[in-house]
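ok so for the tutorial part 2 we go from a plain amino acid sequence to predicted structure tokens. step 1 is just haveing the sequence, like this:
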Amino acid sequence: MTLILNLPPETEARLRERATREGCREEELALSAVEQFLKSGNAPNTSKRSILDFRGVGKHLPVGMDAQEYVSNMRDEWDHDE
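step 2 — the prediction. this is what the tokens look like for a chain of 82 residues:
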């Protein structure tokens, strides 16, 4: 399998400098870094949110008002703010 990494220019420059300093190829250094990352288990946090996290989010919304009417009122308020 071939993996192509699109690194920011600063990161690529640091990778080249380190590879030169350590006397190895850039690909070897990048592969080593990826392997260390995978072994460390520091994967991004993928925790899911609970529906209960959103409790009370819409309390300020008027009950029984038509959605389009609510949006129209909001837009009218924006026009008056200018």
